[in-house]
């Protein structure tokens, strides 16, 4: 269905092999930080009604804890990053929508079970390539003034210098271990890929490809960090990317890397949703 071994991918593989011994970025812990909101501010409660908190059951604490962010793109579907929870069974995952505070028992919250998960077939956790995943909810979210959908983009690239925002419940400082209780947002700027691949930036370890967006702050005061992974990158009011990885939080020479929502990913999203929801003659997904 999705051929990962194409000429383009083979070329990427050759580059990856050359630099494999120099790879220094780890995903999930701690380098694959999923980006937390550093240098940001609390958003107006329920002003980002498409935001989802993806939570994993902690066996030791016997409770669910925030792991990643996500975006409600259909009442039955959440779009997030593939690296967020591949090692967890779907029965260990729940999605919370309609939340501003993770700790307060808000009446606006909806807690939804995950029926299935669909990581992109060609996801490579060693390079961050194709870091995108769909979560099928067991029960559709009830759309209201606190829970809304975010329209998918047209797949066009985002120009360097574009001002964007990213929101999440991730850690708020590089020294912190706990996620933010309330949803926070930060402004960042898209950086040209040629700059992010330079020796004094990522130095091609890994290669920042056209499937990715590199964005951050020149002074290193604003960034996404651990716990923000999977959340949406909004550029010019459009859903442009997904929080993926970074080497350090708020390091001006290691900006956050985001999965760009390309035309190929959009085709995969539509095909996946259509294939699973064959019973739904009027899908509510927004394109």
UniProtKB/TrEMBL annotation:
The chain crosses the membrane at residues 12-32. SMART domains: Tryp_SPc. GO terms for molecular function: serine-type endopeptidase activity. Keywords: Disulfide bond, Hydrolase, Membrane, Protease, Serine protease, Signal, Transmembrane, Transmembrane helix. It comes from the Eukaryota. Residues 37-274 form the Peptidase S1 domain. Signal peptide: none annotated. One of its GO terms (biological process) is proteolysis. Coiled coil: none annotated. This is Peptidase S1 domain-containing protein. It comes from Callorhinchus milii (Ghost shark).
């Amino acid at each position: 269905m999705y051929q990962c071994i194409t000429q383009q991918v083979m070329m990427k593989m050759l580059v990856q092999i050359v630099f494999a011994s120099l790879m220094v970025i780890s995903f999930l812990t701690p380098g694959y930080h999923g980006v937390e909101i550093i240098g940001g501010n609390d958003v107006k409660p329920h002003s980002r009604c498409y935001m989802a908190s993806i939570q994993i059951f902690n066996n030791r604490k016997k409770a669910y804890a925030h792991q990643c962010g996500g975006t409600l793109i259909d009442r039955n579907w959440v779009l997030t990053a593939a690296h967020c929870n591949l090692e967890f069974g779907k029965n260990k995952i729940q999605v919370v929508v309609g939340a501003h505070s993770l700790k307060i028992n808000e009446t606006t919250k909806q807690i939804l079970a995950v029926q299935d998960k669909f990581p992109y077939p060609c996801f490579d956790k060693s390079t961050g390539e194709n870091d995108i995943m769909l979560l099928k909810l067991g029960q559709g979210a009830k759309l209201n003034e606190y829970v809304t959908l975010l329209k998918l983009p047209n797949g066009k690239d985002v120009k360097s210098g574009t001002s964007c925002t990213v929101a999440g419940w991730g850690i708020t400082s590089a020294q912190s271990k706990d996620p933010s209780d309330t949803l926070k947002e930060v402004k960042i700027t898209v950086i040209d890929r040629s700059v992010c691949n330079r020796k004094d930036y990522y130095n091609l370890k890994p290669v920042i490809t056209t499937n990715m967006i590199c964005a951050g702050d020149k002074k290193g005061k604003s960034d996404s960090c651990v716990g923000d992974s999977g959340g949406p990158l909004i550029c010019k009011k459009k859903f442009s990317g997904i929080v993926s990885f970074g080497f350090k939080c708020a390091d001006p020479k290691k900006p956050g890397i985001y999965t760009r929502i390309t035309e190929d990913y959009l085709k995969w999203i539509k095909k996946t949703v259509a294939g699973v929801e064959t019973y739904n003659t009027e899908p509510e997904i927004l394109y």
